[in-house]
Amino acid sequence: MNKTLPALLLVLLATPAFAHAHLQKSMPAANAKVKSPQHVVLHFSEALEPAFSGALLLDADGRNVSGAPVVIDGPLMTLTPGKLAPGVYHVSWHSVGHDTHRLDGDFSFTVK
Amino acid sequence: MLVFGGAMLRAILRTRLPALALPPGRLLTAAALVALLSAPLTLAFTTAQMAGDSATMFDAHMLTLTMTQTLFGQVFLARLALLLLLVIGALLKWRDNQLALLSGAALVLISVTSHAAGASPANFAAIGITSDGLHLLTGGFWIGGLALLAALFVSKTEKKLLAGATTIFAEWGMIAVAILVLTGMLNAASILLGGEGHDTTAYLAVLGAKLALVVGMVALALVNHFRLLPQLAAGGSADGLLRNIRRELGLGLVVVALAALLGLLAPTM
User: How many Å apart are CA A32 and CA B33, to the nearest integer?
Assistant: First the structure.
């Protein structure tokens, strides 16, 4: 019993866990200034339901420059736009995890 | 939950108290039918939730997409098959332990797409599924068992047999409630402590209300066990116990509704 409780707490609390598919990080990162990226990769906290998740890449004029269809593999969402001209770009995403809850979000980055 | 708890307690009472005449299983059949007929609604609501558009509730293409392309859809189809079998079994008067097995499997499958599964430590979903599955099964035993007990009390069963049935339910109920509370704490801790961002007020408020009602149910169960059951066993009136069982069942049904609401709310922002 002396060892059980700490072990239980360790299992429960030591590792991060999430109830919905939150965006954890992206490449390029939000507000980053980068050269034209080959891919825009969004990393979520849990595996996504590809049929109900997606993202759009929009330029400063609101034109869709997402390029090839979004590829979703587990918690990763990848956009493959063509060469991007210098300017501000806006990523608008929506994610659905296995718990069926939908999250929406957006961020911007700048191409130098 | 009603079917699982009712069928489980019926199977136990059949073995432990053979002299007891159990009420006909009409309640079980009705509950199984409601579960089967309401399943398409769950599919429609979940599709709308995932699509972020209420119009998709009636969109055949989107409903098919949910059933064929998502984990929820696969679980939904498996549950639908189990519920169909359960209704057939209830109508054909299969044995109680077979009905308990079918309804238990249909109940546990809900946990596959639960918050607890998504919030499992290290994304190892089996931990959350096991904990949430046990939570559902023990909750089902408590609620369904209470419904069967209430039916027995109403059917004017002999007092000695009523006291025997209540005692047997209490023996199993204590184990079920202990597991229910433990798994509830585990689920809440993993969802709230492991989550990103801050906890949402609505989620905490509903969780708090659910906890308060469960405490009320436990208090009623203790009064039943330590005060009203001994009175009944000594030949006293069964009315007080029936009243309390109804109150406990009423609270239990509200708890189930709040648990369903928790499944729809976002724990953290």
Answer: 56
